[in-house]
Specification:
The chain is an all-alpha fold. Helix content is 57%, strand content 1%. The chain has 57 helices and three strands. The protein starts with a helix and ends with a strand.
Amino acid sequence: MIVKTFMDMDQDSEDEKHQYLPLALHLASEFFLRNPNKDVRLLVACCLADIFRIYAPEAPYTSHDKLKDIFLFITRQLKGLEDTKSPQFNRYFYLLENLAWVKSYNICFELEDCNEIFIQLFRTLFSVINNSHNQKVQMHMLDLMSSITMEGDGVTQELLDSILINLIPAHKNLNKQAFDLSKFLLKRTVQTIEPCIANFFNQVLVLGKSSVSDLSEHVFDLIQELFAIDPHLLLSVMPQLEFKLKSNDGEERLAVVKLLAKLFGSKDSDLATQNRPLWHCFLGRFNDIHVPVRLECVKFASHCLMNHPDLARDLTEFLKVRSHDPEEAIRHDVIVTIITAGKRDLSLVNDQLLGFVRERTLDKRWRVRKEAMMGLAQLYKKYCLHAEAGKDAAEKVNWIKDKLLHIYYQNSIDDKLLVEKIFAQYLVPHNLETQARMKCLYYLYANLDPNAVKALNEMWKCQNLLRSHVRELLDLHKQPPSEANNTAMFGKLMTIAKNLPDPGKAQDFVKKFNQVLGEDEKLRSQLELLISPACSCKQADVCVREIARKLANPKQPTNPFLEMVKFLLERIAPVHIDSEAISALVKLMNKSIEGTTDDEEEGVSPDTAIRSGLELLKVLSFTHPTSFHSAETYESLLQCLRMEDDKVAEAAIQIFRNTGHRIETDLPQIRSTLIPILHQKAKRGTPHQAKQAVHCIHAIFSNKEVQLAQIFEPLSRSLNADVPEQLVTPLVSLGHISMLAPDQFASPMKSVVANFIVKDLLMNDRSIGEKNVKLWSPDEEVSPEVLAKVQAIKLLVRWLLGMKNNQSKSANSTLRLLSAMLVSEGDLTEQKRISKSDMSRLRLAAGSAIMKLAQEPCYHEIITPEQFQLCALVINDECYQVRQIFAQKLHKALVKLQLPLEYMAIFALCAKDPVKERRAHARQCLLKNISIRREYIKQNPMANEKLLSLLPEYVVPYMIHLLTHDPEFTKPQDVDQLRDIKECLWFMLEVLMTKSENSSHAFIRKISESIKQTKDTQSPDDLKTNEKLYTVCDVALIVIQSKSTSCNMDSAKDPVLPTKFFTQPEKEFSNEKNYVSDEMRTLLLTGKPKPAGVLGAVNKPLSAAGRRPYHRTTVSDTGSNMNVNSDSGSLVGNRTREIGSEVSETGVSENDENPVRIISVIPAKTEVVKNKELNSEQVAPSNIVPERGKKRTAAAGTENIQQKPEEKKADEMGTTAPPKPRRGRPPKSESQGSTAKNDDAGKPAGRGKKRAAINQECPAGLEAGNAKVSKQQDLVTKKAASTQRQIDLQR
């Protein structure tokens, strides 16, 4: 009744208000406020709320204590709102609604301790709200609290805590509705509450007063939530965060970075735009000294790139630095960040960011490399293979396929295995249907760059080789047990283990697998089927699963043994190629030929598709030859043979050669069509086609003797030197025929060689070469006659390689002919009718021919030391291309262990090469060769019997002997010459002495000491030659002792010296003399720095001092025999040593974590040596013409030297005499960083550098990078020479 009365009463009823005043006062008595009945308390609270409404704005209660008790009482009753299913809930809702509408709690502002009431109210409301409340309840609560917050004088810390505590993650998760209520309250009261929030954070963050609130330890969580609610709540807090970012405490910086990462990275945040100073300060933490801070910054970048692409430019530079971070985890996360964003949307990552991932594919840590490679592979599959974002996106990442395949060049087996996995899963997914898979492979191969194609070919080759190893292992299992069988099996297991990750552990697993194979015949048969040529891709998949199932152990969830076997099976299983796949490839190529396919849409022209398709089939014909055996495939190849494209026809012939062993018996129709085409190609095709045609006939036909004779006889009769254009193909065919069938054609070929090849072709110059200034010309510019001569030289070699004996002494004659060609610098007739570039071609052919013959033991024995030295000096040829190609051929033969060890000594001469890239290439070749030989010795126990020809340290005596006979080494006590010798020695020894295994340093020292107790077999009685030999030994000992601390140890084994180069030690002969004085030793050790090869792959700071040019003297006598040991005296006057200085260069190694700056050392100029006395025997008589082969020209650099009048006068007075020049290395040029300019032209030329003729001026132009310098005039006779020399400066 009372409740109803108060509910119906309004504020305008003054009489009623007066009438019910005593009742209102009575209801506030202790009896009602503390009544035990909750229903009574609820009704009283409702009445009190109505009383405050009716008597508003003045309350009928004047006592502050009474008011406090009343509001605390009402607050307690609000707890009843929690249960929405209570019968009394409507009354509780009425109570709340009444209080909110009237703002009754605002009366409490007059009370001193009103804060206690408000805190209790806020806590009550936050505690009772739940998901069963409707929106009205929430709105009334919000109205009630917001009125208190906004209309008071401020919000106390305790009251603020009661609001903020609901934002802490722990509370937020417990009561989501309380969190929402706090969020809406803060949004509504942002203007009022912001100063209070700012004060709280200022106390905690700046002043460090954590005691001001129990929430102090949650400040960063609160900032995050407040920012998400309304950034305006933190207007004054953000500058405080900038202050915290610069804290000295790493953990504190980390906490702030984590917070800001969330603020900047959230989807709708514009904090980076609104607060640029804070954003830039945050970016500075990417370079923080504390690793976890940098790591957190990198992790943030991923969200930022995805949510705020506009900030990518700001992040790029910082991610670039972090991609080179010393910490592996940070570099790894940079990759994850970029790849994650790229997979979301490729437009989020720019080319620069993708470039960082590209760099990390060469990181030194496997985890980083793997993440980068897998990430790029996923991007390629998504945007190129599946074309999920159109052509533009595909074009953006089109480079990935090439880059991933390039990694196959790395030495790490892990890298190779990952590339194979990526190829099978991402580049050409093996789970595609055959047609789709082959289309993918067909166009991938057509779009790859040349290096990627080579890598892919190498990958298939390695997989095929491993298959053959496994096949051989299974063959050994079929043989009866024996000691020899066990030894062979062990060697095969070690070879297989090297092709698996972590070869050390793999050895144990491979042994275990081999044991299982021996015990389980069914498993063995499954493996035999897997590696059989007839195994299809589907069968391979079944076999792999079956073998894995048999080896699996259910009780062992992680089975490293099974994982290793899977690696092996994945490498040997033919998951891409089988007969069906080859047929599909051929059909695709036919469509390209017919023009019925859309090659252009795949980014290639039809011609390119056809050519690359044939190349692909050619490669697969080596690894999967049986898959080609079908009439349909061969018919398509015959169609390719008839095409005009020479490359296509050549590839088709080679495919027939590799796969056609059963054509004669199974496909007679193909045979009858193929034979005339092969004959035609052998007679009138291109040289490459002719070679392949001859080999094809020899490989696939049983009556090959008849077939080859039908080609040989007409070709040998039709040879005509007057028509050189028509000679190349016949010479190629004849050479290969004589090599493949020596028993049948060796004798007929002898007359061809004697009467035509040597007498008519090589010893005659019918045409006059162009007088150009270039040392090298492209293939298409080489004269037909020279091309024919090059093929004639190759024919001689092939003829001898076919015979493999020297009974007729033909090899001796051939070697003398080749040596004469080297002595005459390519102009065998010395009629000066041949151009410089053609001479370079012939020198290269002659040097390569000697090297090719040396690969056959019967010819290696008859190659004299002089001929070997002539061949070696080709690596110092004046023409860059000659040096380059010769070094490549030398390395290729050495790395296959086809050349004797002495030929590895030739690389020591590369220290004199003026081009740093060539020096670095030679160093890499040495590293490769030495590692292969050492590995071969480890893997082959029988190799210990042939250590003299295999052990890399045994190259030292050959190197010492070769340097002794270096034409530039004429004075054993000349410091400049000894420095050159030291450089050459260290060039080889540095690689040899990288590791000291089995006292190798002591062994090298002992070799050098042993040589001093012998004599030079080449000139045993020549005192000067032997003095040079002992001097080189002493220089070698100086280098060894200065670089190694273990070289003075005892060596367990005594070196064996090659008798071809050194005499046996004489008992009465003991050589203890030091041939290098202490002063000279000091000069050698402290003089100019040794030049080092410069390539990014070397991975260390490098420098290269300026180098003098190269020249070489060779002398030919009147007959065919050569004497390269003749004294090379020269006119020596006042010599100046011109020191070129290379401009500093910088480079970065991709494989390093941090960039390495490569700086060239600029050596100081040396003093001019004046008034050097002339020896009488060194002055040539004025009427003597220089001997044949002794050239008097030299290069002066990229700029021709012109003498000043004063210098001419000095020359005429005879005060200076130039050194005798020899053909050889060009000088430093500007292209190599030389700083020598015209202002140095007036200085006397250094050794090997000629000054201009006295009465002539040198032409000033440069053509194609070659400088033409006039031939020097003889200083005694003052007669100008008629010929000019050129220096090749092409790089």
